[in-house]
Specification:
globular, about 20% helix
């Protein structure tokens, strides 16, 4: 889900792509991503929308390892964290 400027202002979320769900057995789950994380960078490139993320994914093949920067919620607010994800195939 895109974190728009309105959502940023209203809820104090960082800009990026909000992870609304992580499915069991996926690369996201294996990397430790959880619902509520916000993807802010993909392979070093700033992400501002799901469309940008989707476009970038088109350049990578299944099995490629990429670093993803996320903002992860904690008791002290959002903390930046970098994780490595091995990309899986597209869902059918």
């Amino acid at each position: 889900v895109n974190v728009t400027a309105d959502v940023q202002e209203q809820y104090g979320l960082p800009a990026g792509v909000y992870i609304a769900n992580v499915y069991e057995g996926t690369a996201a789950e294996s990397a430790g991503l959880v619902k509520g994380d916000i993807i802010t960078k993909f392979d070093g490139q700033t992400i501002g929308s799901f469309e940008e993320l989707s476009d970038l994914l088109g350049y990578y093949t299944e099995g490629t390892e990429v670093k993803i920067t996320i903002m992860q919620g904690s008791a002290d607010g959002y903390q930046e964290k970098e994780v490595t994800v091995t990309l899986g195939g597209k869902a059918q």
